[in-house]
Amino acid sequence: MLNIQLNGELSISKLVIGCMRMNDWKLSTEQVVEFIEWCIERGITTFDHADIYGGDHRNESQFGEALKLKPSLRENIQIVTKCDICVPNAKHPEIKTRFFNTDQAYVLAQVNESLEKLQCGYIDILLIHMFDLLVDPRELGETLQQLKSEGKVKYFGLSNHSPLEFDTLQKYTDMRFVTHQFMLHPLGIQNYHNGTMTHCLKEGISPMIWSPLAGGRIFKPTNAVEENMKSVLETIRQELGLTHIDEVVYQWIFKHSSNPAIVLGTGNKERIERAIQSAENVRLTREQWYKVLIEAGYTLW
């Protein structure tokens, strides 16, 4: 498995295991350990979390229980987690409306809680999950510096921010954001339309792409537009001699010169194996790549 060097000291695997649905996989702690080991053996060493993932926000705890059972796993993986989304839940019944919070006290508390749930001493990459319209960028910069100084977080990035939002927050911190995580798939190309992919080239960062298969709609279309895209992907699959259309999607994402990572929100080992093959052997032509982009609704001129 290929790695992506985010800076002089930090690299992540080109495939990242997204743990948002881990609670739905119904794995025992022992099975989570086995799954992490299986991933490491294949060169997948990066695992993506958020403080709100899972039933009652439990997915970090589930992963942490695996690390407690086998502590040696920690030195072989990179943990990414996120914070700033506040949602109604059993632990915080006082919250009635979803909102974002980048206040210093809140971010520090959430990071401490994530460390406790993950049962580890530090987070490799902390992402600000969504852009907080009430953010005080100076205060946030100070918060990130404190987390770095305390050894609780090694590096920082953003998730689901526009280029302007990214640049605004970057201006107020001396620590360079190492990645930007956002959605991209052949049924959702807004991050090409709004310049976010090009912004990654400008900043020299590798993005982390989530929902590459559009939540399964690539396989099970719900309208005529999606049916057409499935047909396009199937034609390219046949042209390339691939076994499944998800391989076409992975290659379409990997072909971009920003050197993206893909966040796979699945525990399906066959799908993960296909993604590994795609990461290591991108054969999609420039014409095929543009065919997908155009059919997705992008106008070249």
UniProtKB/TrEMBL annotation:
Q: Which SUPFAM superfamilies match?
A: NAD(P)-linked oxidoreductase
Q: Which Pfam families match?
A: Aldo_ket_red
Ranges for domain NADP-dependent oxidoreductase come to 14-290
Kindly give the InterPro entries that the UniProt entry links to this protein: AKR_Detox_Biosynth, NAD(P)_OxRdtase_dom_sf, NADP_OxRdtase_dom
- Please give the name of this protein: Oxidoreductase
Q: Which organism is it from?
A: Paenibacillus forsythiae
